[in-house]
Amino acid sequence: MKKLVTVGCALMSAFAAQANEWYVEPVIGNDAYDGTSSNVVSDTKGPFRTLQGAMTNALLQANDTVWLLPGTYAEGEMEWSGTNRCVITTDGLKIRSTDGADVTFVTGASGMRCIGVDESATGVILD
Q1: CA 59 – CA 62 distance, rounded (Å)
Q2: What DSSP element (H or E) covers 3?
């Protein structure tokens, strides 16, 4: 019985520590998609269109990775308030470009900040 409890606890820990990967693509993406695929697979499965769409995903959790596919992300260009367009509040979140800074750009309106990391979010990586 002791072995069974130990194995069960180890399996539960492995599943609890599992990080998810989410995808964002500025042309074919749609914030109504689930973000679980880099390509459009169905009416509901495909990449988010905006980084803000990914940040509002209810399933986003600490240590997840959000992959930005190549393109220009116009975060906040439709709003003219002085606040950040996309605020990251999830601890340990990794936001990474799939192909590097030469092909992935995140822009905002009139030079305003387009991404902010909330002071309560620790260990966030923008890469």
Answers
A1: 10
A2: helix 2-16
